[in-house]
Design brief:
Shape of chain A: globular
Distance between the termini of chain B: 8 Å
CATH class of chain B: Mainly Beta
Helix content of chain A: 10-25%
Oligomer: heterodimer
Strand order of the largest sheet of chain B: 3-2-1-30
Strand content of chain A: 15-25%
Number of helices of chain B: 1
Largest interface: A-B, 18 and 16 residues
Largest sheet of chain A: 5 strands, mixed
Radius of gyration of chain A: 12 Å
Helix content of chain B: under 10%
Number of strands of chain A: 5
Chain lengths: 89, 372
């Protein structure tokens, strides 16, 4: 199981509690998370399933490389952080 | 007569109500959030507001109690990109064409005889239709799949966008849309088929041989007269155009002081020859000429214009009014407009004089009357 944590900033729009979910890559992990929280999917991914331009995701502290297909590997016990990147004003 | 106006801004949605002697702000919603557009549906009173959360994408919210409470509703979504689809590169930017929602740029209720129908224009160029008041949306594939769509031009943003949607009051299946930058498109069968129009328009930003190409016309705003639907007005990137034959052909209005440049246009609901514009110093400066905010009104189909300034700042004012920043009520008496520097003015005498409603709002993106 991997642990998924979300930025505090998203919580005022949609509650995204930290949860443990299954999956061996980022796509599987996020799909598992969003399966029970479908509204949150559109806040993190666009309708083509890509990470939104100004969102960043880290797996065990490393920034995710494959932002389109979400193929980055996730290990059992990994910690995934979903954060908004610094932008805007 | 309308007694309420909604102001969508970079940092919230504001309600402005008519009082005994003046208009004033009565409510603020979504404070801090980027509200890019608002629509009032006169058929059922629904309000739709589009928000751009930046990091978290574009969202739609709906109110069914005149803006007292809001709930997130369904946002239009582009369908999955076909397997193996290779998007063309956007002219100018050398970036692939987008296939996901970037901005809700146009919202219009369908006709009175088709309850539930709402049209939504977007960047990067998709038109969506709802038949259930926005509970669900479907991309109008006939237009999205048009072979010319790959060559639609961008505008100030990096993607083409549909901003103006005119539903013909005689026939709700007849819809005309304005695209920046791809001219004017018309369907007569509720979106099953489309034809581009635009003969007579001219784009002075193109090479001379291409200036008459209907696809190259940067329509800033398209409006249709409800009382005489054959009459359309366009505020175009390089001028003012009108059509008296249902948008089939266009004639240019020139020699308008202080400028033919601007973004919005409003047409009188009954009198097709009366229209209002908010001119700006064209094109490279985009602020009021000589620091004076004015509204231009023609009452004779564009032969002459009156420059209206009573109640508007006439010194060191640099307010720009975006394409959705001007609206007219159903009587043609009340007009409202809001600016990039957070000012809002309302007139109850067809523009002869203006009341300052606000001077310190966030940048205004859209002004919409609640119409009966």
């Amino acid at each position: 199981m991997a642990t998924v944590r979300f930025t505090q900033n998203i919580q005022r729009h949609v509650a995204c509690p930290t949860r443990e979910v299954k999956g061996s890559n980022l796509r599987e992990v996020l799909d598992d998370y969003f399966r029970e929280n479908e509204k949150a999917r559109g806040y993190v991914l666009d309708e083509q399933g890509k990470i939104r331009q100004h969102m960043v995701v880290f797996i065990d502290g490393d920034m995710v490389r494959d932002r389109d297909r979400l193929s980055d590997r996730v290990e059992p016990g990994s910690v995934i952080d979903v954060i908004q990147s610094l932008a805007g004003g | 007569m309308s007694n309420r106006c909604y102001i969508a801004t970079r940092k919230g949605l504001f309600t402005v109500d008519r009082g005994n002697s003046k208009w004033s702000i009565s409510n603020a919603a979504f404070v801090g959030d980027n509200v890019t557009l608002v629509m009032h549906d006169p058929r059922n009173g629904d309000l739709l507001a589009s928000l751009n959360h930046g990091h978290f994408g574009i969202k739609m919210h709906r109110s069914r109690d005149e803006g007292k409470t809001w709930a997130e509703s369904t946002v239009p979504q582009y369908p999955p990109m076909p397997e193996g689809y290779e998007p063309k590169m956007v002219p100018f930017f050398n970036k692939p064409l987008e296939w996901s929602l970037k901005l809700v740029w146009g919202l219009a209720p369908g006709g009175a005889d088709e309850p539930g129908v709402v049209w939504c224009g977007t960047m990067p160029g998709g038109l969506f239709k709802s038949e259930d008041n926005g509970d669900s949306w479907e991309l109008v594939r006939s237009l999205w799949d048009d072979p010319t769509r790959d060559s639609w031009g961008p505008n100030g943003a990096e993607w083409p966008g549909i901003h103006s949607i005119c539903v013909d009051p005689r026939d709700s299946r007849h819809v005309s849309i304005g695209v920046s930058t791809a001219g004017v498109w018309i369907t007569r069968d509720s979106g099953k088929t489309w034809k581009i129009t635009g003969g007579g328009m001219r784009s002075e930003y193109a090479p001379p041989e291409q200036q008459g190409d209907p696809l190259g016309q940067d329509v800033h705003c398209l409006v249709q007269c409800a009382g005489n639907p054959e009459m359309f007005w366009i505020q175009h990137h390089n001028g003012i155009f009108k059509s008296t034959d249902g948008a089939a052909t266009w004639s240019e209005i020139t020699d308008v002081k202080p400028s033919v440049f601007g973004f919005p246009v409003a047409v009188h609901p009954k009198d097709p020859n009366t229209a209002w514009f908010v001119p700006a110093f064209k094109d490279e400066k985009r602020c009021p000429t000589d620091g004076r905010v004015v509204v231009n009104r023609t009452s004779d189909g564009g032969k002459t214009f009156e420059t209206l300034r009573k109640g508007l700042p006439q010194k060191y004012a640099y307010d720009l009014v975006y394409r959705h920043g001007l609206d007219i009520d159903e009587t043609g008496k009340s007009l409202a407009f809001g600016s990039t520097t957070g000012s809002v003015w309302i007139s109850d005498d067809s523009g002869d004089s203006w009341q300052t409603v606000a001077s310190n709002l966030p940048p205004v993106y859209a002004v919409r009357f609640a119409k009966a």
